[in-house]
User: Fold FRG1-like protein from Bombardia bombarda.
Amino acid sequence: MFVLPTDPPTSLACDAIGNVFTLPIENIVDGNPASAEPHDVRQVWVANKIVGTEHCRFKGHHGKYLGCDKIGVFSATSEAVSPLESFSIISTADTPGTFQIQTLRDTFLTVRASRSSKAGAAPEVRGDETDITFDTTLRIRMQARFKPRLKASKEGKAREKISRRELEEAVGRRIDDDEARRLKRARREGDYHEVLLNIKVKNKHDKYG
Assistant:
């Protein structure tokens, strides 16, 4: 979900025929954009990297891709990906946790006050801003159901980390650089105990051989 820099926060959404618009966020704590979660399928976009490039594509709930035409109008009506449906995600240098969505024409997704005369009209989203501004700076939120996987992945990576001292305690002696590399690689690849045993056996052979 793209959380846009509006007050109150809104998200980038699309309907079944590909109209792209801003939608108020209901699942949010105290108006904090960092706590936002999607409550409507229209807010959900599936992001994938385009093979062979550093660019991304965003597929809406209806199976069509987000695109931005040459004059900065967004829609989600294409079943194929062309340069119009290709974007770069850029971290905002001075605002951690926020991003810029850039088109291949080097313009940015931005939000602006509605030009409608209707009271309370929703902000408009455009793709023709040439500079990074507050209005182009947004947050990207995952659906809650993906968070446990991310947490598990982080915990798994944490288990992979082990100090040289811990490795030497496991082996029962000082180890050289090659042995340390082998053991750390084995921690990542899942055969740590087998490699540890081999090194211990080698140690005994060296000691008594």
Remarks:
- Confidence is low (pLDDT under 50) at residues 144-152.
- Helices lie at 147-160, 164-171, 177-189, 192-208.
- The chain is about 25% helix and 25% strand.
